[in-house]
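**User:**
My hope is that you can spare some time for a protein that puzzles me. This is the protein in question:
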Amino acid sequence: MKFFRKIRQKLLIESKFSKYLLYAIGEIILVVIGILIALQINNWNQNRKDDRTLKEYLGKVRVHTLEDLRILDTLTKYRTQIATQCKKARVRILNKTEDEDLFLFMSCGVAFADYYFKPNTGGYEALKNSVYFGKINNTALDSLLISYHSLVEDIAENEKSYNEYVVNQETYLSTRFDTSLILASAFLPQDSLKIRATPQSEYYQVFAEYTASAPYRNVISLAAFQLDAMVYQYGQLKNAGHGIIQEIDNLANN
């Protein structure tokens, strides 16, 4: 600054006003350039900080999506097995051969379990409520996240419809049958039942009546096709989830 001040004083003393004016303009330009460079560096540093924070949010979304995928794999396997059993039972009902395989109908009792897919949305909600969500607007990741959580809502509605129906049918059955023998025959080891006072034939008789009832068979029929619809939705959600993970990995490597 002392150097520049000496130049200005020398030009004024020598009455070289035009040169002084040019010098002053040049000095102003240098100051402006310096300010612009400083602003650019500051913006660059801020963008680096923002990108780092965004990646931290996306890292949580990635971890939670992986957790969801593991749950979906388990549910897919479970729902598929139940649907397969219920389809076999439905064929038996249509062919009027259900008495030939009572054990098959016993195994269909798991169709009454009211399971729900409960995704971990903590990472996504935190990102959505942050100032960094705008940085992924109108990107492939944004579209995948919207699609993913739209599917989550569809699955929740489907599961709610199925589970509420099943619970209602089970509640009705509990008013028509003494389920103590049914639960015993379904869950207790057969060896332990043989030593009880109740004869084995009575267990089978009660269960045969129970499985022949309309509410029980309604659940079997519903499970035979609605669980397939759930499995299909799980597959769609898994595809979207893998897409989200891939997009996050791409952003992390940039």
Remarks:
- Residues 16-177+213-252 form one domain.
- The chain has a mean pLDDT of 84.
- The radius of gyration is 35 Å.
- The longest helix spans residues 17-95.
